[in-house]
Amino acid sequence: MKVILLQDVENLGKEGEVKEVADGFARNFLLPKKLAEIATDDAVKKAESKKQKKAEEAKTELEEVQKLAEQLEGRELYIKVKEEDGKLFGSINEKTIAKTFKDEGLNINPENVKLAEPIKEMGEYDAQINLDHGLEANIRIILVSESEEK
After folding, report:
1. Residues of the chain under the 50 pLDDT cut
2. Which CATH number fits domain 70-149: 3.10.430.100, 3.90.215.10, 1.10.10.10, 3.90.105.10?
3. The CATH number of 2-66 is which of 3.40.50.11540, 3.40.50.10160, 3.40.5.10, 3.30.9.10?
């Protein structure tokens, strides 16, 4: 029996694929659990258009992520900190960096920011931003004392 998978099914295929399966497997497992539907001509056409639409959305998303990666690559991020004699009050971590980006209008998740270790002293540090689709951008974090601006 030919079926169209409505969800990813382990050891069978991905959503939207048309597969030939045993009648009993389809009737007793796939159809009752709404993991698949019978592959009629209309259903196949609908699945193909859905697949094409998903591919276009993925392409658009990839382009957006590439633009963001280009925007971030080599960027210097200045963070104002409270410090005394080069030592910070607290530390700069992934959440702080993500919040600084958010304040600038860029939506970066803290999980995407990679630091070797939390920053506890004044200076310049390298960090990596891991984005979707396996893209990454390297940034430079520069700590600026709040007292220097007064």
Report:
1. 150
2. 3.10.430.100
3. 3.40.5.10
Which pLDDT does position 148 carry in this prediction?
64
Cα 75 versus chain centre, distance: 20
Contact in structure between 119 and 143 (CB atoms under 8 Å): yes
Tokens representing 38 are: 């019978």
Rounded CA gap, 101 and 19, in Å? 45
| pLDDT value of position 47 | 86
| Distance, CA of 25 to CA of 2 (rounded, Å) | 11
Whether this model's pTM surpasses 0.90: no
For residue 19, the model assigns a pLDDT of 93
Handedness of CA 118, 77, 65, 6 (dihedral sign): positive
Q: Do domains 2-66 and 70-149 have the same CATH topology?
A: no
Beta-strand (E) ranges in the chain? 2-5, 18-20, 36-38, 76-81, 83-84, 87-92, 113-114, 119-121, 124-130, 136-145
